[in-house]
Each structure stands twice: as C-alpha cells, then as structure tokens.
Specification:
The chain has 640 residues and is α/β, with parallel strands linked by helices. It is 43% helix and 23% strand.
Length: 640
Amino acid sequence: MGTPLRLLMIEDSEDDAYLLVRELTRAGYDPIAERVESQSALEAALDRQEWDVVTGDYSMPHFSGLAGLEIMRARGLDVPFIFVSGTIGEERAIAAMRAGANDYVMKGNLNRLAPAIQRELRDAADRRAHRLAQAALRESETSYRLLVEHAPVGIYRSTPAGRFLTANTALVRMLGYDSAAQLLLLDMARDVYADPAERQRLLARDADTEREYDDFETTWKRKDGHPLTVQLSVRAIRGTDGHVEYYETVVRDVSEQRRLELQFLQAQKMEAIGRLAGGVAHDFNNLLTVIQSYTDLMLEDLAPEDTKRDDLLEVRKAAEAATALTRQLLAFSRRQVLQPKVLNLNTILANTEKMLRRLIGEDVRLTTSSAPDLGLVKVDPGQLEQVIMNLAVNARDAMPQGGQLTIETTNVEMDESYLRGHTVALPGRYVMLAVSDTGIGMDAATQARIFEPFFTTKEPGKGTGLGLATVYGIVKQSGGFIWVYSEPGQGTTFKVYLPLAGGSVESEPAPTAVPPRGRETVLIAEDMAAVRAVTKQMLERQGYTVLEAPDGESALQLAGQHPGPIELLVTDVVMPMLGGRQLASRLRELRPNVKVLYISGYTDDAIVHHGILDAGIAYLQKPYTPDALARKVREVLGPP
C-alpha cells in the first residue's frame, strides 16, 4: 500500500489526469484524486477538505491553472502548487513561479512529478512546523507578559544608568503612579530611592557578586514621598564582554511586614521589662508593707504633741510615694489585681474634675464634654481615675505656658474598614475617652516610645517616665487600647477605647468612719517574717486572736492542733511548696466554715485570670495599712 496523497488536479483532460495519477501510483503514492476544470468546482473542492498538493494545467479553454493559483493564494493556503502542462514555455514557467507556484513539470516528462511532490511536501511540512513553533512562541510570550503584568509583586527591567525599561502594573501601583509610561521617565536614584546614593552602593556591591540573583533590602519612596521598605531580587543580564546590559528585578513591598516585626519586638521588650518590673514591685510591696504598717502603728502610739510625729510622717510620706511607684510598675507590667465594676465613665470624670482643676493649675483651661447617652464599661474605678489623672498631668506638662485641656467621652462603633490601619484593635462598640491639649506636641520618634517605662522628655528630676506606661498597662489589662495623635507644635490627643459592657451600674458601699474591731481567731500564713509579724500586731490591736505560720504546711499543722475555732485564714497567695489557694482548699477540709482573705504584692493565676479577680475571692493588695487591713478583715468576717 502506497503513501496516501490527497491530490487536487486543475485539468480539463481526463486522459492527462489518468496519466498523472498512474505516474504517482508507480512512484509509491496512493492518490486520492479529484479533477476540477472551473472556478466554482475548485472553490467547492477547497471548501470541502484539505489537500496535500494541487496540480494545474497552465492553459485550458475556460479556466487555467494560473487562475486557480491566484484563488489559492488569495485564500492564504500554504499547499504546494505544481504546474503540469504540455504548452507552458520557459518564460511562462518563470512567471508562474513568481506568481507563487512551487514548480512546473512538462506532461512529456512526468517522471519528475513524484520527486517534485516529495520535495514540496517536505518543505511544506517544515514551513508548517515553523509556523507552529512561531505561534507557540507568540503564545508563550503573551502568557509571560500576562503573568508579569498580573503578578502581585513588582517586576521591572532597568538600565545600569538607572532608567526603567519596563515595569508591570504592581510596580506602578506600589510607587503610586498612574501608568508604566510615567515610570520610564524617572531617574531611579533621584525619584525612587529614598537615599539617592543607595543605588550606587548597591551597584558597587553587584559588581563583586557572581550569584545569579542578588537579594537585598532597601528604602524606596512613593510619588507622594511616603517611604517604602522593599526587598529586591536582582538579576544582572550581561553581554558577551561581561558588562551588564540591563537588570531584571522582582520587588516586594515588605513595609507592613517590617512594621509588624518591630511591633512584635517592641511587645517582647515590653513584656520582658514588665516581668522584671512586676518582680521588683512584688518584693518592694512586701518591704513597704512592713515600713508603712509599723509607721502607722507608731503614729497611733505617739501623742499628738510628740515631736517624733513629724519624722514619722515624713517616713510615711516617702513610703506612700514608693507605694505609688510600685503600683505604677504593676500597672505597666499588667500584674496588678483589678476589681472591675460596671460603671459610667461620665461619673468617674465628674468625680475627678475638681481634683483635676487643682492639679493642672490656673493657666490651663479645662473643658469637659460628656456624651449624655454614654454606654457603660466594666473597669476598676480606681485604675480608671489613675488613667484620667496621668493623662491630664501629661497634658499639663506639655503646656508650660498654659493652654487648653479638653476631655471628651463618646460612644464609637469600629468596623473592619476603619481598623485596617490599627492592627491592635478589634471591631465592635466602644466607649472613648479623649484627652487633648494645645501643647508642644510630639514627633514620630517620640510617639514610638512614649509608652515605654522610664522614657521621658522631661528634665531630670521632673518625672519617673512611668505615667504613660501606667496608662498603657491599665488600658490593656482592662481589655481596651489607646492611640495617640500628635504633631510638633500642634498639640496631642490621647484616645482611650474601652469595650462596651452590659448590665447596670454597680454602686460602691460607703466606708464606716471607724474600723470595726473583732474577737475572732485569725490564722496568718505568710512566708516573709517581717510582714507576718506586723500583720499579727495590727490584728491583735483590733482585738483578734492571731495564730501565725511561715508557710502553708505549717499553717495546716497549726490548724489541726488548735483546740478552738478559726474563723479566718489570712494567707499570702505565693508561698513556697504550698500556695495560698491550695492551703485554703486543704484547710476547708479540716474546718469547712473558715473564711479566707488573700494578700499579695502582685497578681497570680491562683486567684486571678488576666489580672481580674475571680468571683467570690476576698483580696487585699500589699502594701496595706492597719486601717485597710481592719476593714477588709471585718468585711470578710461579716458584722461582729
């Protein structure tokens, strides 16, 4: 069986067509042939199917091979066309070849036909393969351009002189321009790099590397001047002489990533400082309990006219200052124990307004604006007062020549779109406290550090640097967040956001004028001897019978041996081997009716969660005074 060949013949002679087919069959082909002798028949045949080769007689009465050739070329068909004629001369043959014919064969020399067809079929196959390769290349280039154009990262080519050759849409958007054509007009060193000399330094480094891609990070700037931290992956395309012809670069905007990394590092640093501050405050609170309590006891024993009272009052004043400092440390480190209550922020603001006016001085005008429909929040009222006071003092110090201090409360609703630039916040409903001043303001570098402990812009001796750190700690521990808005010379606004709370306002019980006394038996468990001793003395002065133990195990043994009742356990929360919570649990197995008062210098997970006191827990923060201890003990025991 021969090689299949789809053959279309433009021929008016059936005999000549037969001879042509016979010759091809003898040459090893298996022709599927059709003969046409008019334009309509030719066009119908071309419409009906594809052909491997077309032959045409040069001269026919009503139609000709030359006319057929014109029809095929008009259709753009790349099918070999060979004239097979007995009348074509050399000049006509040359003209036919110029018109697009692939070859010509004389009818008297048909033995040339098969080799000519074989050659032309091979050339046609080569042309077809070349066209397919070109089409695939064009498709690949189009796909590549689309890939580059729609890539989420910036991609560009640039000259060694610093001009863009190409730029994709992501790069145009990243730099804040309207089109790639605008980028092609830029000088990269001047218009793109934040430091014009940085590009030259990077090029100098590139000259010394043999890596295909050189990755580095630098700072660019947008059209509006806003800085961008970008990560560049650069490939130098070199000529045969080794010199760089152009650079191919992939750009990633890592500004947000670096900002979040800095926030994380800052949070880690603050957490480490907080742990240190909490530990220091805990130890100091034990010492201050001893100092302050013995001072108060001595003051009780001295006559009003005794000259030693003034000295003791100075000691007590210093102890109170130290106590305030340790409370600031605990607030910053978020290790204070909060006793939150549902309240109206306007009430707290009204209660502190008179004190604020005395605090800020006559040269600062105070204006308050309270939303009448303000929602409720659940916070520790004493801590909230401290937030207001610290922010007001900070504002006063920012206005040495006087100015305007404005305190405002309002309800706010925060949605996802509003919070895109404030990653520390969560969507929801909040109550906002805003404290604004018309003072000297702050630059960005100062704003970045204002909540750090011991950071202050005041003169030495004018502040501890803990005021705003304390505010930050209280707000965060209360489940809120704080933002600052400021510009040099334009004043500052602090905005505190606290989550909206349900329920109704919880009232504070009015304290009694004189601490009530008692006759019950109290067991003290405290591992610091000095604190244990002074606590025992304070309770005995109030009429209580006091048993004391240096740790939890000793307290259990003492309770088991004591013949009489024990109405109250006063225990430190954190003790070696057996902590206060475990001691209370085991003691209730021996004495089910015993009541418990916990004392501690800072928070502990035994009785609090995230700084919030567990429900039903009686707690007294160190350092405590004789008066505070007496009231709290009586509160836990109930009426005498």
